[in-house]
Amino acid sequence: MEVRIEHLTKTFIGKKGVETTAVNDMNFVVPDGKLVGLLGPSGCGKSTTLYMIAGLHKPTEGKIWFGDEDVTNVPPENRGIGLVFQNYALYPHFSVRQNISFPLDNVRFPHPLHAFKTRIKEVEKDIKESSAELAALDRKIVKGEEKIAALTAKPDVDVEKQSEEMKLLDELKATHFEVEQRAIELQEELEKAHVALDRAIEALKAIKPTEEETAELARLKRVASAKDAPLEDKAAYSEAKKVFDEKNEKYRLTVRRTLSRADKDEIIHKTARLVDIEQYLDRKPKELSGGQQQRVAIARALAKSPRVLLLDEPLSNLDARLRLQTREEIRRIQKETGVTTIFVTHDQEEAMSISDIIVVMNYGVVNQIDAPQKVYDQPINLFVAKFLGSPAINIFDGEIRKGKLYVNKVLFDEDPIYKNEFHGFIERRREVVAGTNLTHDEYIEDLKKHPEKVEGLSMKKLEALRNPDIEKIVIKEEVRRTDRPVKIGIRPEAFKISPEGKIPVEIRFIEHIGRDISIIGNVAKQKESKLKIIVPSEHASGIVGKKVIACDPKWFFVFEESGERIK
Ligand SMILES: Nc1ncnc2c1ncn2[C@@H]1O[C@H](COP(=O)(O)OP(=O)(O)O)[C@@H](O)[C@H]1O
Ligand SMILES: [Mg+2]
After folding, report:
1. Is the distance from CB of 120 to CB of 192 less than 8 angstroms?
2. Looking at residue 166, what is its pLDDT?
């Protein structure tokens, strides 16, 4: 089931009327059968997005599609979703079996005659309404005719008024005719609906074992269970019982209201086997490890064969080892079932390892949608570059001057791309006191400078000084320039150590981590420009024992001040 999100927006109105736009004009597609990782820092709107897809939050704007169906206003229970939360949310007093079967207990099948009966009721209601309408029209027509008669009887006939009334009467008669036609159609429809109901009743009767059949079976049973009953009689009974049971079962399945116990059992075992907890069905949740409990929660979400599986940070409560193992399990289960899945996480490594596609978001806005490796190798902006990768990317201040890239006034690169002028908007986010465009500090400063303003302040605002309502606002500045400051990003593994290297690095300490060594240091003579370099252990001899090494980047990214990537 493909999931499509269009212009999805959610604005929460807080207690004091402060608005938070948790999700802002999001667009993305989860292709059928794929696992999409929704990745971003805490508070960026991941859960809000997921809960809108689940139907637990109503979008402020935008649409959600499951395939061709617009589910934006469909209640959660009718969306066909399975939800898994960080804290498992299992019923502690229920066994694993009961936990999995719980959603199945609420599966309801409509009675086979239900649709026909509902249709008849609807049509009957329409007929009643149209006859009431006809009666009202009849009364109006009579009144209209009386009015015209009265007008005509007057000695000086008001011709204008008379023709006006006649026009009204004609309109009433035309409406009457239409309603009458519709009433006739409704009557025909009612008859058809009754015929359909009768047919359905007959069809149901045809598959229901008759009284005669039931009596005959009872008779055969009596004969067969008599003392010294011949073998043929026993065989005849068992044959008849088989036919009878089959018929009865077919009838029972047709008119059933809920899943049968056997059906439920089959589903419980199938899903428990899928998530590998079949042997724990009779345990209580607290008798299981966190990872096993989370697998039960996944089984419960899968039991109703959801069209879409939604997972909100499902691994966050697990310890490191279980997290890894459960992550692989989720991937396997997702592949095996082929269920379209949205996996929310703030952990970039988790998103990288589990997803077919990653949607990186920040402040409720989608930044990049790509395959995991592409997000890492081709980050669209500074935020994505910093958010992906562990250890994090090294960021240096650089400068473009006369079309060349410099770091510490040393020429770093001279790609012609730096000749392009930057023209655009730089967005800055400010946290301001609600209702002003001043930060809290600026607000206090402003009041100090203008003590007269304090006089006019309401109690509410005075209170706000101590405990301000903070609002996030975005300031956009239009800029156009050639020479400008930029940021340079170099991933820890993107350095090569060479005597001619342009970047001198003072080594603070070295960690040996298996295949790699990791150098923690700073750009020489700049304590604040910390950096981390990872190189294969085989280069250790050129590094260990040295105070300063020279490096060059094998590759790097350049970003505008606004965060947008240049190269
Ligand atoms: N029910 C709510 N009422 C008001 N604000 C909310 C509500 N739910 C979430 N928020 C706010 O919306 C933003 C996004 O929250 P959330 O979607 O939970 O982020 P995430 O799951 O990425 O950590 C946060 O600023 C949060 O405080
Ligand atoms: Mg969340």
Report:
1. no
2. 92
Nearest to 45 by CA among 65, 70, 22: 22
Under 8 Å between Cβ of 60 and 288: no
- Least Cα distance to 531 among 519, 539, 540, 543 occurs for 519
CA distance 511 to 550: 18
Q: What pLDDT does 57 receive?
A: 95
CA–CA dist 247, 235 (Å, integer): 19
Looking at residue 417, its amino acid is I
Q: DSSP label at 565?
A: B
CB 86 less than 6 A from any atom of ligand 1: no
**φ, ψ of residue 405 in degrees (nearest 5):** -100, 130
Burial of 450: CB neighbours in 10 Å, binned 0-12, 13-18, 19+: exposed
Q: What's the gap between Cα 478 and its chain centre?
A: 35
Cβ-contact 256, 109 below 8 angstroms: yes
Which of helix, strand or coil describes residue 215? helix
pLDDT in tens, 403-434: 999 988 888 898 999 999 888 887 777 888 87
CB-CB contact of 10 with 71 (8 Å): no
- For ligand 2, the distance from its centroid to the CA atom of residue 52, given in whole angstroms, is 13
Q: What are phi and psi of 251, to 5 degrees?
A: -65, -45
Extract the tokens encoding 320: 């490191």
The DSSP-derived string for 75-91 is: -GGGS-EEEE-TT----
Ligand 1 contact via 45 beta carbon (within 6 Å): yes
Contact 25, 365 (CB under 8 A): yes
Residue 419 DSSP symbol: G
Alpha carbon nearest to ligand 1 atom 12, residue: 22
pLDDT, one tens digit per residue, over 518-561 is 999 998 888 888 899 999 988 888 788 888 999 989 999 999 98
The residue type of 567 is K
Atom of ligand 1 nearest to the CA of 14: 4
Tokens of 491: 């991933």
Output b/e per residue, 143-165; b: 16+ Cβ within 10 A.
Answer: ebeebbeebeeeeeeeeeeeeeb
- The two structure tokens encoding residue 229: 């009953």
Question: CB within 8 A of 155, min separation 6: which ones?
Answer: none
Residues of the chain with pLDDT under 50: none
Decide whether any atom of ligand 1 lies within 6 Å of the 42 Cβ.
yes
Q: Which two tokens stand for residue 506?
A: 């003072």
Helix (H) or strand (E) run with residue 462 in it: helix 459-466
**Tokens linked to 478:** 């239009």
Residue at 557: amino acid letter: F
Q: If you search the block for the tokens 């999700």, which residue do you land on?
A: 23
Distance, CA of 36 to CA of 357 (rounded, Å): 5
The reply to whether omega before 103 is within 30° of 0 (cis) is no
Whether 316 lines ligand 1, by a CB cut-off of 6 Å, is no
User: Count of alpha carbons within 13 Å of 55, Cβ hemisphere only?
Assistant: 18
